[in-house]
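4.2 Preliminary Data

To establish feasibility before requesting continued support, the project team ran the inverse folding procedure on a target of 64 residues. The structure was first converted into the token representation described in Section 3, and no sequence information of any kind was made available to the design step. The complete token record follows.
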């Protein structure tokens, strides 16, 4: 994660959160063009590289 709270995927840059500045996140492809965003064990959400959207993790929905 950059100091601005962004991550890079291929040639693009996407904002996620300034709370993770300088931290390492993982991206694992869930489907074609859909990436799970992982911080240690928990999934933070999914990134759709086609329309550049981030959605909450399915396991976290309805718990806030």
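Position-by-position output of the design step:
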């Amino acid at each position: 994660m950059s100091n601005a709270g962004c991550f890079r995927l291929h040639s693009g840059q996407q904002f996620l959160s300034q709370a993770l500045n300088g931290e390492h996140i993982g991206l694992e492809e869930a489907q074609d063009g859909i990436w799970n965003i992982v911080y240690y064990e928990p999934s933070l959400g999914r990134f759709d590289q086609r329309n550049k959207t981030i959605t909450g993790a399915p396991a976290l929905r309805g718990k806030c």
